[in-house]
Amino acid sequence: MSDFEIAEKARSFSCSPYSHYTVGAALRTKSGKVYMGCNIENHGIQGLCAERTAFAKALSEGERDFESITVLGAPVGEKAIDECTPCGYCRQFMSEFVDKDFKVYTRQGDEVREYTINDLLPHSFIF
Ligand SMILES: [Zn+2]
Fold first, then answer.
1. Which is the catalytic residue, given 5, 8, 41, 51?
2. Ligand 1 centroid to residue 48 C-alpha, Å
3. Which of 52, 78, 93, 126 is the most exposed place for a label (fewest CB within 10 A)?
4. pLDDT tens, per residue, the chain with 127 residues
């Protein structure tokens, strides 16, 4: 199963009753394990994006070495055709847990797009 297929499976678990926009992520570790994440929305507080869900799962199980994350998103019931890139919050969040060679994969139609975290968050704040 490709990471895009895993992200699509994660997307099927999306909890998005407010935005009706479903997102799935497949976070791959350097050891080859893959953590799925979907967006989780609720009424009371800010929800979780798929990317941070996947990172929270992995980090809370002790993972620290990440290779890539693959992200897909689309309105509920629609195929994920248009590119869905991580939001600003997720870009900052991920940047604090990954190396410079970490890759973010998306796709536009059948075209796979590959980014580094620096592509997505240039000149980021560093402690
Ligand atoms: Zn996000």
1. 51
2. 7
3. 126
4. 999 999 999 999 999 999 999 999 999 999 999 999 999 999 877 799 999 999 999 999 999 999 999 999 999 999 999 999 999 999 999 999 999 999 999 999 999 999 999 999 998 776 6
Task: State the burial class of residue 105 (Cβ atoms within 10 Å of its Cβ: 0-12, 13-18, 19+).
Answer: buried
Cα 110 to ligand 1 centre (Å):
23
Domain 3-120, what architecture? Answer: 3-Layer(aba) Sandwich (3.40)
Instruction: Tell me whether residue 61 is one of the annotated catalytic residues.
Output: no
